[in-house]
Amino acid sequence: MTKNISLKIQYTIFACLLWAGLSKSTQAQTLSLDYSVDTNCILTLNLLDSTNTVASFSPPYHFSISGINVNSNSLASAIIDLSSLPNGNHDIEVIDGNQNYYLDSTTISCGQTSTLPNFALIDSVFQLPTSCNQCNGSGKIEVVNSNSLYTFEWSDGFVLSNALFSQRNNLCPGVYTIVVTDSIGAKNATSLTVSCNNIYPPQVATCFPDITRYLGFNNQVNISTTDLSAIGINNIQTEAYIIDASGAISETVHFDCNDLGYHYLTLLLIDSALQTSDTCKVLVNIQDSLSTCNGSTGNSNGLIGFTTNASTCNSCDGRYTFLQFEDSLTATGPPTFAWSDGSTAGPTRTNLCPNQNYVLSVSDVNGTMHTATINVACLGNTCIDSNQVDSSLSCPPVYAPVCGCDSVTYVNACVAAYTYGVSRWTQGACNPNGLTLSISTTPAASCDTINTCSGTANISISGGFPPYTVIWSDTSIIGTAPLNICSGNYQVTVTDFQGNIVTSIVTIGIDGCVWPGDTDNNTVANNFDLLPIGLSYGDVGPARTQPSTLWLPFQAFDWNSFPIAGLQNKKHIDSDGNGVIDSLDVDAILLNYGRSYFRSGSNSLPGPIPFGIDAVTVHIGDTITTPIYLGNQSSPVVNAYGVAFTVNYNPAHIEAGSVSASFNGSWLGNDLLQVQKVFDRTGQLQVAISRKDKAPISGHGPIGALHFTIKDDLIMGRLSNSDSITSPVSISDIRLINYRNEELGTTPTTGNITILELLSTHTLTNHELDIQLFPNPTDGLLNIISKKVNLTSIQLFNATGQLIDSNSSPNQHENKISMERLATGIYFLSIQTDQGVFNQKVQVIH
């Protein structure tokens, strides 16, 4: 998605930085957040599906850390630098294009040491301007509990030093942000709104609840403020903007094939005279009714790299070094570089001029385009001063857009100066003049016929000032939609009427390659890929010229062996490329498990054959073995050969690292090929087993056993006034085949684990602890107030005992929890204190 105006906005000022947002939708239960923070404070965050593959079915994915929107991708993967955040606990939130929420939290100690200001501010307005075009209003900012003299910096440029208060009598109508600094450099900030006696009341933002827009023949559609507003906007009195999910503000938002699906847009109205603001949200559905996108999904991910400032502001010796693509799990090298000024240097460029925006386009070997805007600063920089950034300062949550000296629009002057180090700005948003390209391609040929030139490219130009001039590095290629392009890398340069230039690399790839581990050629390596190996075990054919199990596309000769219905050419099954299909090819599945160069789903074929585990009663801490059965006497499996499936369990009840399956004594056979992968965070065990003798077998009963250990610290018995928990175990994503690769239908059943004798811990009463929870019932914030004891941890469970979220380092006496996203029902709080545990039911109503 591209915007005519970009706005950097720190969402800490708009989001309630509380322990908030604890819901997950029904769809979200099939996905999980996987993350890690390294010693450099870099957070690697992935939203994984049931195959441990990075999700991409419902873009865009919006990533927020403690309410700050930090990234928006078409792939659910992000690398985020947390070093600028304060140390402590931070909520992680991912929202997909269908508005499903996925939440977790992490605690960092590699960030900034927060220091709360030791002084408070009081703002007051003494006199309003006599009219809305007069600047004779009076206002005052005063320090309470003062301990020194202070410097007052107003957003309109006025500065007062060595004072205890700042009173002004020349204020125009508007919103002012004021940053106050004491003698040791500690800062605090506030805002002052100066109104006027306007004869017209400010317009109220009134939005359609949802709209649907369709891409045109050019694969594009623009959404304007009038598209969102259910009533007419008074443009004489009101400034209208759109805020997208990434926090960017603009007058119009551009969508193309990269953006199919749902997006929340916010309509922002600012009264020109009173400078008051109002907002409303619209759910926008972008559809491709003309099939102009041809089912393709673009890539709007960016680049990971670092810059080095220029030595002086007059020297063009700034540096940028490219490290990797943001979607590095799927992008493949080697990369090709193109800069907006025509340079092709990379991965390091050493001649960048300071305070200049460069657009860098990097293409991987498959033609997937990634872009980023690169800007280096300099020593003595008069625009950006990184030393001015103060991560401990919380800027006031007011909309008062300013245009920075770097031509970027910021939400207000405080954010511009102390979040991004901008030294100069003008009131109002920057004028739109960006020139951007959106590029999609189709492959030139397959891996086996790479000399055929049948590739295509489609370039959509937005921003700037038409008409546009398009020049390709290969002068035989003309226009924005060329055909019959050979595989390779090309540079395209677009110039608008005013001379603005943008350059990008277009890569035409090849198709039909062998990806080691993807034996069924469905673009992902997982447990299903074991079945083709079993069906073709022992077959031989021509070896690849490059035998390897690395996750790269390899050219290979087709095998002329007798084909099996439903299977790809057996060159794909020979994963290691040595010319023999055997157990070594299973290694490539395990090596590349979950990796994909596209995404595809799997469904189970329904049928009469039962598939599941038996119900079992256990105690906490028990290690259990229970049979996995396939078929019964009335519905046996006829001519079975192999099966792939997923076991789903509750990770809150079963110990991580304890889950596995074994297949000794299986009626399917004794010498079986097998692969299994455990995902402890999501509670899934993915399994596949197959015969390898090309002979079918019929039978019913146990095909293996499931092994697991019950956690020994379960607490839900106390919360639900019960001495047991029922924990379901189900089977899903089943592919049962016969010796001809024909799928057989199953009926998966759920086996319930009844857990007895839960851990007994002394539970204190509210009278003993004097902990107040209010309001209860609640439809929004729940307050937790402790007057006698110190709170050490808070856990929230649903009615089935699932841990919804936890806070291991709460405030010792006062906390707030946002319950507004949770479904109506009963939930349970377990609060650990320094005197014992307090448990309480909480009712959510809507």
TrEMBL record:
<dbReference type="InterPro" id="IPR002102">
    <property type="entry name" value="Cohesin_dom"/>
</dbReference>
<dbReference type="InterPro" id="IPR026444">
    <property type="entry name" value="Secre_tail"/>
</dbReference>
<dbReference type="InterPro" id="IPR018247">
    <property type="entry name" value="EF_Hand_1_Ca_BS"/>
</dbReference>
<dbReference type="GO" id="GO:0000272">
    <property type="term" value="P:polysaccharide catabolic process"/>
</dbReference>
<feature type="domain" description="Kazal-like">
    <location>
        <begin position="372"/>
        <end position="432"/>
    </location>
</feature>
<keyword id="KW-0732">Signal</keyword>
<protein>
    <recommendedName>
        <fullName>Kazal-like domain-containing protein</fullName>
    </recommendedName>
</protein>
<dbReference type="InterPro" id="IPR002350">
    <property type="entry name" value="Kazal_dom"/>
</dbReference>
<dbReference type="InterPro" id="IPR036058">
    <property type="entry name" value="Kazal_dom_sf"/>
</dbReference>
<dbReference type="GO" id="GO:0030246">
    <property type="term" value="F:carbohydrate binding"/>
</dbReference>
<dbReference type="Pfam" id="PF00050">
    <property type="entry name" value="Kazal_1"/>
</dbReference>
<dbReference type="InterPro" id="IPR008965">
    <property type="entry name" value="CBM2/CBM3_carb-bd_dom_sf"/>
</dbReference>
<dbReference type="Pfam" id="PF00963">
    <property type="entry name" value="Cohesin"/>
</dbReference>
<feature type="signal peptide">
    <location>
        <begin position="1"/>
        <end position="28"/>
    </location>
</feature>
<dbReference type="Pfam" id="PF18962">
    <property type="entry name" value="Por_Secre_tail"/>
</dbReference>
